[in-house]
Design a protein that fits this description.
362 residues; single chain; mainly alpha; two-stranded antiparallel sheet; 51% helix
Length: 362
């Protein structure tokens, strides 16, 4: 379905200048102007560039304490983070943002370029530090695919781009930031971790665990290896993790299983039955004993021998020493292999020893 073209909107409203003027009007006109600017930011790159160049627009938006205005500021910031026209808010606004950003992520736009003290502080009414709450929020929204969540997740990573340097904080970030960076890189960013070399082993270990993950249908190996690259040189040559991303550890690209004895060019699409026999042979053998084995698994050789062996030649000695489970006993009894029901007395001997009869009941 074609997306509607809103490029006419900016010109119809008098351009960005006309919309900015409306921001200072009555509440109704301000609301309409914000909605128009929101559409322009999403659909008209030229209009967004014009908005970025308008100091007046950014100044007005920063003085408006509404979710819509903060959302617009977030879009302005994300459009050009290197040349962002936004200025830091006053201390009162910033303290409010630190206390409530978890319930209202649009407040993140007020937390850009934080100080170490702000990140490590515990805001009023909260039980954990601001940096821990930022990481928790990022973990919650990074898996969502809507535009707002993606933008807020990227803003959190920007806020944490220059984290505190104390060892405990660095170690905590080494455990949690790598996954957020991998997800960000999957969205097309070029982020690189900015953590100290003292955490190199933890960073590589975390990224190696992530390298086998598939996120949104995409493998993470190459991204995890790229992020881990700068930290591998800090590992001891005898450390097994130093070889974690060597060419020998590269996983199969298509992740197909290959039957032993075949070359990689002879990839085989395995059936469910074959897959279970390779991965869990004991489970495969157990499932063969079912009356009707699932997943296309063939019946076991014991049951097959009962069905193919002439009944007249069956004897107790043919099954001598066999210890039946309750499941096997009932299956074979009901199948006619153990009871001889309806064939006349002595038609053939029940091939289960007496202790099995005692165990299985009638």
């Amino acid at each position: 379905m074609n997306r509607e073209d809103y490029s006419w909107l900016s010109e119809w409203a008098g351009g960005i200048v006309g919309l900015v003027e409306k921001l200072g009007s009555t509440d109704d006109e301000m609301h309409i102007a914000l909605e128009c600017l929101d559409l322009v930011a999403d659909t008209d790159p030229q209009g967004l560039a014009e908005l970025l160049a308008s100091d007046q627009a950014c100044n007005i938006l920063q003085t408006m304490d509404t979710v819509a205005a903060r959302s617009m500021l977030g879009k302005v910031y994300m459009a050009d983070r290197t040349q962002s026209p936004l200025t830091l808010p006053d201390e009162k606004t910033r303290l409010h943002a630190w206390a409530h950003f978890h319930s209202d992520p649009s407040l993140l736009v007020h937390l850009l370029v934080p100080t170490t003290a702000e990140l490590l502080a515990v805001s009023p009414g909260q039980s954990t530090s601001n940096i821990d709450r930022l990481l928790n929020l990022a973990s919650q929204i990074s898996t969502k695919r809507d535009t707002n969540s993606s933008r807020h997740s990227e803003m959190i990573l920007d806020i944490l781009s220059d984290p505190p340097k104390d060892p405990l904080t660095q170690l905590a970030l080494a455990r949690r930031l790598p996954e957020l960076y991998v997800r960000s890189r999957l969205q097309g960013t070029t982020r690189r971790l900015n953590l100290d070399a003292c955490c190199a082993r933890r960073i590589v270990k975390t990224l190696f665990a992530l390298s086998t993950e598939i996120i949104d249908g995409r493998e993470c190996w190459s991204i995890a290896r790229n992020l881990a690259g700068p930290y591998l040189e800090y590992l001891d040559t005898n450390d097994p993790l130093a070889q974690a991303f060597s060419p020998e550890t590269v996983p199969s690209v298509d992740r197909k299983l290959f039957i032993p004895g075949t070359s990689t060019s002879q990839a085989t699409t395995l059936t469910s039955s074959e897959l279970i026999s390779l991965l869990a042979p004991e489970l495969y053998t157990t499932l063969q004993t079912s009356r009707v084995p699932p997943l296309g698994i063939p019946a076991g050789s014991i049951l097959t021998s009962y069905n193919t062996q002439p009944q007249a030649s069956a004897s107790a000695s043919a099954f001598g020493g066999k210890v039946y489970s309750l499941h096997e006993f009932r299956r074979e009894r009901d199948a006619g292999g153990l009871g001889g029901s309806g064939l006349g007395v002595g038609a053939w001997v029940r091939p289960a020893s007496r202790h099995v009869d005692d165990f299985g009941g009638s």
